């Protein structure tokens, strides 16, 4: 077989494009994912993340560019690639009338595992997903977090080298998200390469070793979360809210107190390495904000700087 990738990237795309009619959803992106890393696509709704993911999952053919996955071409080797991938789609596609265990066993049987092996694999995955005690429960009434963990477990049935996760924690409460992140850390430690799409900057910061910021089908920047923040933001951000509809005049008055000032509909952001000093400057100039907050810069700030928009509007 010519599928041994050695040190070569597990996923490599050049000029990857997806058009739907005359509309370009993914516009010539270059991506390279290495073995063992957690790689992210961060961008708002409609950025082209799911379209990219579906091409990587080898279920949607590219309309331009080249794509190689595990050293193979999805146009000709789709089934071979899919056998070595795990996919966690954006919406759960579990069978709600079956039990947790049955969902896993049936899926394992699709992959051709014998009943005995499928059962053993289901036991292992139930434990991994912390669902052993719910093994015989019907899926439908389970919490959103449990269903997500089961969907991830199902994606691992064929012991994939790469697990693709499309918006893994959308709609989950904070506690359920943390449980899920913990499971994903474990997977990564065990050597599975993770590819994640998200529009949550905290998720990207928590999980991804490297990521691309996507907007309008293009890649706006690439790097580790830390590198991106260092490259595109100051260390700190001073957030100010004033008792006024229009924050723009305050931006003018704050001129010179920070490296960069952004005006949002409900607040002013001052980008500076010393937020407290900037706040003192604001007060010295006679401005009295309703509230002020000095925080560490995040990927949200990177996105705002690169696109002039917020990730979640
Ligand atoms: N099958 C399709 N036919 C036509 N347009 C499509 C199709 N699939 C996606 N699109 C369009 O392509 C663009 C990118 O969609 P995509 O789902 O890839 O974005 P996304 O970043 O994953 O956002 P979301 O999180 O909302 O899924 C959107 O404008 C979407 O409407």
From TrEMBL:
<dbReference type="GO" id="GO:0005524">
    <property type="term" value="F:ATP binding"/>
</dbReference>
<keyword id="KW-0067">ATP-binding</keyword>
<comment type="similarity">
    <text>Belongs to the ABC transporter superfamily.</text>
</comment>
<dbReference type="Pfam" id="PF00005">
    <property type="entry name" value="ABC_tran"/>
</dbReference>
<dbReference type="InterPro" id="IPR027417">
    <property type="entry name" value="P-loop_NTPase"/>
</dbReference>
<keyword id="KW-0547">Nucleotide-binding</keyword>
<dbReference type="InterPro" id="IPR003593">
    <property type="entry name" value="AAA+_ATPase"/>
</dbReference>
<protein>
    <submittedName>
        <fullName>ATP-binding cassette domain-containing protein</fullName>
    </submittedName>
</protein>
<feature type="domain" description="ABC transporter">
    <location>
        <begin position="11"/>
        <end position="241"/>
    </location>
</feature>
<keyword id="KW-0046">Antibiotic resistance</keyword>
<keyword id="KW-0813">Transport</keyword>
<dbReference type="InterPro" id="IPR003439">
    <property type="entry name" value="ABC_transporter-like_ATP-bd"/>
</dbReference>
<dbReference type="InterPro" id="IPR017871">
    <property type="entry name" value="ABC_transporter-like_CS"/>
</dbReference>
<dbReference type="InterPro" id="IPR050763">
    <property type="entry name" value="ABC_transporter_ATP-binding"/>
</dbReference>
């Amino acid at each position: 077989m010519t599928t041994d990738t050695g040190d070569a990237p597990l996923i490599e795309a050049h000029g990857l494009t997806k058009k739907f009619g005359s509309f370009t959803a993914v516009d010539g992106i270059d991506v390279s994912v290495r073995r063992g890393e957690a790689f992210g696509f961060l961008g708002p709704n409609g950025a082209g993340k799911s379209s990219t993911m579906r091409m990587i999952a080898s279920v949607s053919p590219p309309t331009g560019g080249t794509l190689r996955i595990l050293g193979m071409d999805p146009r000709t080797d789709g089934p071979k690639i899919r056998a070595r991938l795990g996919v966690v789609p954006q919406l759960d596609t579990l069978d709600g009338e079956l039990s947790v265990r049955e969902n896993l066993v049936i899926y394992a049987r699709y992959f051709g595992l014998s009943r005995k092996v499928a059962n053993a694999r289901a036991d292992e995955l139930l434990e991994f997903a912390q669902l052993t005690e719910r093994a015989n429960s019907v899926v439908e009434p389970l919490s959103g977090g449990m269903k997500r963990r089961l969907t991830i477990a199902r994606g691992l049935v064929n012991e994939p080298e790469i697990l693709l996760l499309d918006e893994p924690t959308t709609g989950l409460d904070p506690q359920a998200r943390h449980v899920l992140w913990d499971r994903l850390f474990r997977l990564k430690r065990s050597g599975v390469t993770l590819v994640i799409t998200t529009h949550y900057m905290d998720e990207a910061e928590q999980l991804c070793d490297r990521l691309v910021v996507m907007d309008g089908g293009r890649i706006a920047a690439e790097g580790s979360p830390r590198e991106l923040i260092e490259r595109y933001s100051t260390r700190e951000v001073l957030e100010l809210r004033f008792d006024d509809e229009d924050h723009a005049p305050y931006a003018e008055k704050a001129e010179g107190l920070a490296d960069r000032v952004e005006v949002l509909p409900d607040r002013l952001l001052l980008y500076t390495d010393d937020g407290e000093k900037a706040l003192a400057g604001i007060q010295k100039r006679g401005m009295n904000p309703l509230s002020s907050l000095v925080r560490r810069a995040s990927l949200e700030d990177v996105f705002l700087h690169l696109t002039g928009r917020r990730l979640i509007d």
